[in-house]
Amino acid sequence: MRAYGFIDAGGPEKLTVLDVPVPEPGPDELRVRVRAAGVNPGDWRLRNGDYGVRGPAALGREVAGTVTALGPGVSGFAVGDEVFGGCPGMVGGWAEQALVTASFTAQRPAGVAPEVAAALPVAAGTAYDALTALDLPAGAVLLVNGAGGGVGIPVVQLARARGIRVVGVAGPGKHDLLAGFGAIPVAYGDGLLDRVRAVAPDGVDAAFDLVGGEALRTVAPLVADRSRLLSVADKPLVRELGGREVERDRSTAVLTELARLVAAGSLDPHVTQVRRLDEAAAALAWVEEGHAVGKVILTP
Ligand SMILES: NC(=O)c1ccc[n+]([C@@H]2O[C@H](COP(=O)([O-])OP(=O)(O)OC[C@H]3O[C@@H](n4cnc5c(N)ncnc54)[C@H](OP(=O)(O)O)[C@@H]3O)[C@@H](O)[C@H]2O)c1
Is the pTM of this model over 0.85? Predict the structure, then answer.
């Protein structure tokens, strides 16, 4: 079958169309005919060789599709079900058929398009888990660093739905979008701390960083209680700063809840590009450049 990934790890020039065998599902796995697959920053890191995965390997860590086979002992799903979920080992989704982890897969409600469902497991799932970890009360102020990207947009919406006030740090081109989702947009760059203090004069109760590096270092002083400083973009630095990573809950229950929120109209992962699988290099280049808006989806 046709897939898209790499043979030797390395830069963007290593991306290529692959001809690989149709995968056989093992325990806790389903095989799906892929209808849509998400693009995430982790995909270019995997291609770079950062996670030690050797090629040939198809990229893609989340998909929506139609079940074509069940692994041994898997229950709760049947061939023909429309599902969405995360791929085992964070690989294999950019393909005609892919494996998903059964315990991190959910039924896709009819009202949730495959292109939307495929955008949920990684980014919206991470957003959901971050809010669970922070457990902020209504009225608290949450700063989201990198608020206009794949994780940022769902975290803004999920936080607003809980009555949390959100300061969204993003490039100026994303400010109208963020304001539309109920965040107070603030531009990054020189003077950021003053701009945040101007819109949140009583301080910030927590921060969720999606950028890392200097951008994380800059906002850390805003959070007095460092157990409320989270990052999924720079784990070593957030630990050094006294903060925490986000522990992921890769479960069917979380995915089911996210799909329910989408169907109810209270969560929109904001898919801004849907591209064909053979355009995967261009799709990944946009995400790798680091300023993508919302989510990018591939269709086989
Ligand atoms: N479980 C996990 O560990 C996990 C899961 C999901 C994601 N992640 C990681 O989390 C990070 C974010 O993922 P994502 O999918 O949201 O990426 P993304 O879609 O690329 O979003 C990142 C956002 O940060 C903004 N940004 C860039 N420089 C900035 C700066 N200096 N200050 C504030 N914002 C800035 C970008 O756009 P603008 O500059 O235009 O505002 C972009 O919207 C990645 O590093 C990813 O690998 C980890």
Answer: yes
